[in-house]
Write a structure and sequence with these properties.
The protein is of the alpha/beta class. It has four helices and four strands, in the order βαβαβααβ. It has one domain. The protein has a four-stranded parallel β-sheet with strand order 2-1-3-4, with helices on both faces.
């Protein structure tokens, strides 16, 4: 699966996804880095067939719930990560850089 990890989440998450066999990039690797606008993030995800992983509620609301241009195409998918259980040994440690 292909992912685009948003700026509020650590770049380590993209690395862990890649180590797990996925194709993942972090917004830090985009041309504007972590200052990339939500519209550009959604366009980048659309063009590359990536799922946006974010904890940015404004992104979800503006692009999916309010029916912006991109959301109306139904190409941009947003996944909000859940908090991993600390007692689960399968949970990766995303606090290390």
């Amino acid at each position: 699966m292909k992912f685009l990890v948003d700026a509020q989440l650590p770049a380590k998450l993209a690395a862990v996804l890649c180590e797990s066999g996925h194709d993942a990039v972090h917004t830090g690797s985009l041309a504007a880095g972590n200052r990339t606008t939500d519209s550009v993030i959604c366009d980048e995800a659309d063009s590359a067939g990536r799922v946006v992983v974010t904890k940015d509620r404004d992104f979800r609301d503006s692009h999916l719930l309010l029916g912006t241009r991109t959301a109306s195409r139904r190409d941009c998918r947003v996944s909000r990560p859940t908090q991993p259980r600390r007692d689960d040994p399968r949970s990766p440690d995303l606090t290390q850089r």
